[in-house]
Amino acid sequence: GKSGSVSYNPDFAATTPVFNEDYDIEPSKSQWFSQKATAQQDLIQLELQLPLYPLAEGDHVLVNDLAHHFEGVWHAARVVADLKNGSYSVLIQDETKERVMPRPVVRINDTSMAAFSKGERVLMKFRESRERWRQGYVIENNKDGTYRVRIMTLDTDWVMDAPREDLVSQFEQSAPLESSRVINAAKLNETLQHALKQLNIGAKVSLFENVGLGCILTAAWSRGDVVVTWDGGNHVDLNVFAELHEPEETPSTLTQSLDRKKKIDETIKSIFVSDLGLEVMGWDRMPRGVGKVVNFPLPSNATWFGQFHRKSSSEKLETSSSSSTETNRTMISNQAQPDGISKDSNTCLEVQNNPSFVSQ
Question: Which of 6, 101, 191, 349 has the fewest CB atoms found within 10 Å of its own CB?
Fold first, then answer.
């Protein structure tokens, strides 16, 4: 309802029952059978994680017990010991038992009073039963020197004003990066050459350096190509495209082709990670081909999800108010029933969450 609460009526009855036969399924059926996946494209996002300054025993810190980029609660704590493995033993305020926390979820409780900019991610102090800091971002710099902040939680968010002393930046300033780890065009060129050699792909690598602050590298062979994009900082994107090896793929040969493509992706990714010290931040995999939306016909027994036939006899649809409606039910064929589709006890259609049957 208008109040935002869920409106529940225990005696609700549908005024107009609608079944599969009421929909025109021919366009989707035609598209399903006309589509043809001929290639696969992978977009892999990599980043060089910048080092953080080490913490010392006795440092006053904030600890996040919910490691989340947007949401989370931070607690005031004190560093007890550096465990020398990237983690620290910390004692949270008003607790008696120490916790072991990795460095990325522990930040120095910054006491600087530098001004914040609109949109900057911050932590705001809340004086509850014990000191807590919640994540948010600045939406306005008030004229009186305070800041208007939108606080984000797991279930809602709200706007509050806060003085500067109750705010710290969510992200710490990183420590200087060792020169041996800095990304540059020459290193990217060498790394891509290494990956192609590992795959026995004799493709020529082309380097374009006058592109923004970074560079672009490309390599193409008879059945595929790879494009490497560097933003000039710490982010690298890999765009890997490969055609299937046969014009007409059967389920078994398609599986083999996809396995070969997976080997290409994994090899290139692994070499960029190992040679440059990058971390995978995101990975999107998409079929490519003709026929509008395309999907690989896997598993091999997958069929078009709309193969129905009408049940010969009429059934009464009983409603919760004991009224009834005369209708013909649409039934799923017992023949070649695909995975992911089942019939419930009342013979209504139920489509389960199966990625093989979700249009992209």
Answer: 6
Q: What is the DSSP letter of 171?
A: S
State the average pLDDT for the chain. 79
pLDDT for residue 177 = 78
pTM for this entry: 0.62
Query: From residue 74, how far is each of 35, 92, 149, 201, 315 by CA, in Å?
Result: 50, 10, 16, 49, 58
> What does the pLDDT read at residue 121?
92
What are φ and ψ of residue 102, in 5° steps? -70, 155
As a whole number of angstroms, the distance between CA 156 and CA 159 comes to 11
Separation between Cα atoms, residue 175 and residue 49, nearest integer Å? 11
Q: Which CATH code of 3.40.50.10860, 3.20.20.240, 3.30.1330.30, 3.30.160.110 fits the domain covering 40-49+178-288?
A: 3.30.160.110
pLDDT computed for residue 15 by the predictor: 85
* Cα 128 to chain centroid, rounded: 33
**Do 169 and 150 meet the contact criterion of CB atoms below 8 Å apart?**
no
Q: In CATH, what is the architecture of 60-169? A: Roll (2.30)
CB atoms inside a 10 Å sphere around CB 114:
7
Q: Please tell me the distance from the alpha carbon of residue 34 to that of residue 304, in angstroms, as a whole number.
A: 11
Please give the Cα distance from 204 to 224 (Å, whole number): 12
Identify which of 177, 182, 198, 216 has the alpha carbon closest to the alpha carbon of residue 271: 198
Please list, in sequence order, all residues whose beta carbon lies within 8 angstroms of the beta carbon of residue 289, skipping any fewer than 6 positions away. Answer: 35, 36, 37, 38, 39
Secondary structure (3-state) at 120? coil
Which amino acid appears at position 258 of this protein? L
The domain limits of the chain are 20-35+299-357, 40-49+178-288, 60-169
Q: Which residues of the chain, if any, have pLDDT below 50?
A: 1-4, 307-360
- Let me know the angle formed at the C-alpha of 27 by 18 and 341, rounded to the nearest 5 degrees: 55
CA–CA separation, 108 and 79 (whole Å): 10
Beta carbons within 8 Å of 167's beta carbon, 6+ residues apart: 116, 122, 123, 124, 125, 147, 149
